[in-house]
Amino acid sequence: QVQLVESGGGLVQAGGSLRLSCAASGRTSSNPMAWFRQAPGKEREFVATKTWSYGPTDYADSVKGRFTISRDNAKNMMYLQMNSLKPEDTAVYYCAASRGGRSAYYLEGAYDYWGQGTQVTVSS
Which residues touch 87 (CB under 8 Å, ≥6 apart)? Predict the structure, then answer.
């Protein structure tokens, strides 16, 4: 069982930056992990994934060039550096981990473990 805890959310002005962190309770270095977000009144959507600690990354088109996902094996941590934030980035951001063996890590269904979420609010 893997437990995930997000932190680092908050209120920021448009154009600003935030760094989200996800702490995993178990060893996750070989597990695909990702960030998703859910805005008010909308479905949860994919943000970014890093399939393993030294593996490739993938981003939603809406965040490419602004967000960077990274992982730290030694600390069992995952991060999301968010720059040039926009009001439309306002959402609850969730950390997710997969047991693996799936093919599409941009889909919610590929993930088995979820954090409780952290609120990010970007003011205009």
Answer: 14, 122, 123, 124
Q: What is the dihedral of CA 20, 71, 96, 37, to 10 degrees?
A: 40
CA separation (Å) from 113 to 17, 46, 108? 27, 15, 10
pLDDT digits (tens, 9 = 90+) for 106-116: 999 999 999 99
pLDDT per residue over 77-87, tens digit each? 999 999 999 99
Measured in degrees and rounded to the nearest 5, phi and psi for residue 108 equal -55, -40
Rounded to 5°, angle at Cα 3 from 87 and 80: 30
Judged by DSSP in three states, 30 sits in coil
Q: How many CB atoms lie within 10 A of CB 119?
A: 12
